Amino acid sequence: MQLDREGLLQKLYSAALLEGGLTGVLADLAIAFPDLPISYQAQCVYQNEFYDCAFYNHGPDVLEKLSRVESANPFPPIALNCDVSDIVQTAHTISPQEMEKTDFYDEFCRENIHINRATGIILHRQGADSAFVAANFPKEFSDEDEARANDVMRFLRPHFQGAFKLLLEVRKREVNTARYGFWLEQIPTPAFVVDGGRRLIHMNTLAEQTLKRDDALTTSPGAVLTSSDILVRKRIEDAIGRAQATSSPVGPVFLRGPGQRGSFFFVLPVRPEGQVHPSLAPFLGPRMPFLVTYFNPEDRPKTAQGVLAGALGVTERESALLQELIYGSSLREAADRLGIAYNTARNQLASVHTKTGTRSQSDVVRMGAQLLARLPGTPELGLG
């Protein structure tokens, strides 16, 4: 089965924000590699009070069996000393032949499809807290399939790490849900919380500044988010109406109003149907609220490049190029604005496609815009 990499990335960050864990994302990997045992363990109970685990394509009662021989497992010590900026291949430290001579292999791996090597992603390491995802290769697993799985793991590494950091940040905010102001201020662009009638409930500092100096968005005497431009006002009304009807995010919606070339916004239901995330509880009222994030190419968020670089696993220069494209520049215009050659910009865009698994400029622009709309712009999101 062909793995939908772009779809997997979208699920990854959505799971971190809305589901409080990454287990559901791994189901897609398990389906794409039905003969490959995949495991996920987040043992972050000491400093983060968080534990989560999942096992796919393993035998029955795998967690119980693993707990009985955990002290003999040679894989965790390998992970403690590895470089988190790349995938971890246990065969580089202990050969499959040596692995087959261990007590752990006799007591656990032999019963679990003869696993004798693994490739892992270290999601988190902080004192005694750790989290990882591992692809556990059976003895009979072909070199070709192993190379394909490792390629997927290498592609997913920065995204899994970024999503897990985001997950822990969300959990920290759950401790004090009354601090909604802090949550909004982490969004690196003007952000409004409105009800279904577009009445303002909360907004961040950037949103307040936007209302003071940006003609595209205004508020009516009744504190309703609107615009002096009829076309823009209609698009705001329609977008919130669609989000309300479907309980789903809407956007990007481009304004294309006079003097506002490239401006766009997203509308995200704060309370998707059937689930209420605890960190968003302060926003909840008698009507479903919506988060409206606004992007103006003339007033770019200072942290946008850092968010893009950290979340997508691209370099700062590549994220600068992507930011230009998100805000409406053509590739040639972006190259001119950044002071680089057009061919250099083409090469950087090709590199972004490779790292994000996208096939076209419009796809990667959409992905980047969605991330800027959804992700808090904390410096810790970048993984270096």
UniProtKB/TrEMBL annotation:
Matches recorded under SUPFAM superfamilies: C-terminal effector domain of the bipartite response regulators
Domain HTH luxR-type positions: 311-368
GO molecular function: DNA binding
Membrane-traversing stretches: none
Superkingdom to which the source organism belongs: Bacteria
A biological process term (GO) from this entry: regulation of DNA-templated transcription
Name of the molecule in the record: Helix-turn-helix transcriptional regulator
